[in-house]
Specification:
The complex is a heterodimer. Chain A is mainly β. Chain A is 14% helix and 50% strand. In chain A, helix 1 runs antiparallel to helix 2. The longest helix of chain A has 14 residues. Chain B is of the alpha+beta class. Chain B is built from six helices and five strands, in the order αααβαββββαα. Chain B has a five-stranded antiparallel sheet with strand order 1-2-3-4-5. Classes of the chains: A mainly beta, B alpha+beta. Chains A and B meet through helix 1, helix 2, helix 3, strand 6 and strand 13 of A and helix 1, helix 2 and helix 5 of B.
Chain lengths: 403, 196
């Protein structure tokens, strides 16, 4: 009975976290310790500190001429999270790229109404494919992210916005729906989208982002089959333009100039991840269609494709399984085939560049020394469809961690 | 704000009942207690949790008239060992006066937050099932999927319960599935010492 009484007392004291209650608590004597502990632990466990990093060595070889390699502290990320209450929290990731470039990768406030409905706003990741959301080095094979997650999906793709997310465990579905600020397609008399890397230069990353019209993004993940995760993502909207600023709607010329500086894009992605015992496999397909590329390319003197397309398939096996020893270590041997074309379709064949139609073969090892710490090495053969492409050989080594 | 002041016309029992009721009304705060470490009793369980447990009992045992009772004779060493593994409550399941098994309530950490889960054991401490009671973070919540949790059924202290070998992982929920797998394994070993 006494126990119940103490619990009730603690419940009350905790439920009104005021200085006054703390004193009341002290008056009751025995409750002090556990209740004080409640207050203390609640403070320490409210803050989350974490981070991840990717350090690379990339060495091209085998060409007609000698080439230098590059050693790079590619990404170093510090993660801070704070829980204001049981339902309201804040997540941020601060990123240093190549040692001297500072970015904010995520910064949003999340309010969980229930597990089925969270509302969040701020700088958030656009859910498209696998790697944009799950980009911590121990979660993917290969020193570098798959190349299509750079050329087609411009990872790490994040924009300012607002959205809802949630899970329906009985149906094994997770959903995400967002309204984002879009890519900046045109600014300072310059078109940002290009044939060579699609939307990559248009990412605003939340830095004084220009906003001219909202874009919409969503993802549905299904996890109802053991070991399998399936994803369907979609993104739709207009690119942003600085030419909107100061335009008088009755000025037809300025209006048409503004219209030419904007494309409407629709991107759809499918992804799958499977794991059973030591075997892992994943694949991803992304197709993105752009409207108004003719006017856009002429206005901006650029060569953006009317459609971008790419896919990859990858399989890996943890060879330490064969030793049958009880270890947390993993040595994953993997192979990945990917093909992607940033000019899958063009409005006019004259701008088509076959060098943008690329195929990569990557094979290597990921050595997980402990959960969260990985050393990687791989070999890549990169070739494209242009007539004089002889293919590039790359050797990559890297270390990564995540905690 | 001396809410708990003893009032003659109310009586201690009533005061406590009211206190418990108010505590369970605000399940958010009641859950804060679960998160921040007090050994739970049947009486102190938030209503939402009791309900979930009751429905799991029906599901795993297929019997309607099972009741929960506080586990009274727990040695301090066992209790400590269980607490170390995130356990916050241990209950016996009875059908009238017959012991049918045990329920352990425990917590563990996902990336940013704690989650609470329940392990259901039969009378021989073999796992009947595992259920997530509350998962707070957006990422990693896939572990609440029943098909995934089914992997723990039938495990005992002698089962390996190793990550990625007999417990299949979930992509995108790495931290959470590792945490719960480790939790279930360690708790199952610790609780096996209660075997008569």
């Amino acid at each position: 009975m006494k126990k119940i009484f103490l619990f009730a007392a603690i419940s009350f004291l905790a439920s009104s976290l005021t200085a006054q209650t703390v004193y009341t608590m002290q008056d009751t004597g025995a409750a002090i310790n556990s209740a004080t502990k409640i207050l203390e632990t609640s403070n320490t466990s409210r803050t989350t500190i974490g981070g991840y990093a990717q350090l690379d060595y990339n060495q091209p070889f085998g060409g007609a001429v000698k080439q230098n390699g590059v050693m790079d502290v590619h990404r170093l990320i510090l993660l801070f999270g704070y829980k204001f209450s049981e339902k309201t929290s804040f997540v941020s990731e601060m990123e240093i790229e190549h040692v001297n470039e500072f970015y904010v990768e995520q910064a949003f406030l999340n309010h969980a109404i229930s597990s089925k409905l969270n509302i969040r706003a701020g700088l958030m990741l656009v859910p498209m494919g696998i790697v944009n959301e799950y980009h911590e080095p121990p979660t993917f094979n290969g020193v570098e992210r798959p190349n299509m997650d750079g050329f087609i999906v411009p990872t790490t793709w994040r924009e300012m916005g607002i959205g809802i997310t949630g899970k329906f465990n009985s149906a094994a579905l997770r959903y995400q729906l967002y309204m984002f600020n879009g890519f900046l397609g045109y600014s300072n008399d310059e078109a940002k989208f290009r044939g060579v890397d699609g939307y990559r230069k248009g990412r605003q990353k939340g830095a004084k982002s220009v906003f001219s019209s909202p874009t919409f993004s969503g993802k549905l993940d299904y996890y109802g089959i053991l070991g399998l995760k399936l994803g369907l993502s979609a993104y739709h909207g207009k690119s942003q333009t600085t030419l909107k600023n100061g335009v008088n709607p009755s000025d037809a010329l300025a209006m048409s100039s503004m219209d030419s500086s904007v494309i409407t894009m629709t991107m759809v992605g499918l992804d799958a991840r499977y794991q059973i015992k030591g075997f892992t496999a994943r694949g991803q397909f992304v197709y993105s269609q752009n409207e108004n590329t003719e006017s856009y390319n002429i206005k901006g003197n650029t060569d953006l494709g009317a459609a971008l397309m790419g896919y990859y398939v990858e399989a890996g096996y943890d060879v330490l399984r064969l030793l049958k020893s009880q270890t947390q270590m993993k040595l994953v041997a993997f192979v990945r085939y990917e093909t992607y074309d940033t000019q899958h379709k063009v409005y006019n064949e004259s701008i088509k560049n076959d060098a943008y139609n690329r195929t990569d073969l990557t094979t290597g090892l990921s050595f997980h020394i402990a959960p969260g710490a990985v050393v990687k090495a791989d070999y890549q053969y990169l070739i494209n469809k242009s007539e004089n492409s002889i293919g590039t050989n790359m050797f990559n080594m890297g270390i990564g961690w995540w905690f | 704000m001396v809410v708990l002041g003893y009032r003659e016309n109310m009586g201690l029992k009533k005061t406590i009942q009211k206190a418990i009721k108010m505590a369970s009304i605000n399940s958010v705060l009641a859950f804060a207690i679960i998160v921040f470490g007090s050994w739970l009793t049947v009486e102190s369980l938030p209503k939402s949790v009791s309900k979930k447990i009751q429905s799991s009992l029906n599901e795993f045992w297929g019997e309607e008239n099972l009741t929960l009772h506080n586990f009274s004779s727990l040695a301090d060493t066992t209790k400590l060992e269980l607490e170390k593994n995130g356990v916050e409550g241990l209950f016996e399941i009875f059908n009238n006066s017959k012991n049918m098994g045990y329920v352990v309530l425990a917590k563990s950490r996902s990336k940013f937050d704690y989650f609470n889960y329940a392990i259901y054991y039969d009378g021989n401490f073999q796992i009947k099932g595992v259920r997530i009671l509350q998962y707070r973070e957006d990422y990693g919540g896939e572990i609440a999927n029943k098909r995934w949790l089914k992997q723990f059924e039938g495990k005992t202290a002698n089962s390996p319960i190793t990550i990625d070998t007999d417990i299949q992982g979930i992509s995108g929920a790495t931290i959470s599935y590792r945490a719960i797998t480790k939790g279930v394994k360690d708790i199952t070993i610790a609780i096996n010492t209660l075997k008569k």
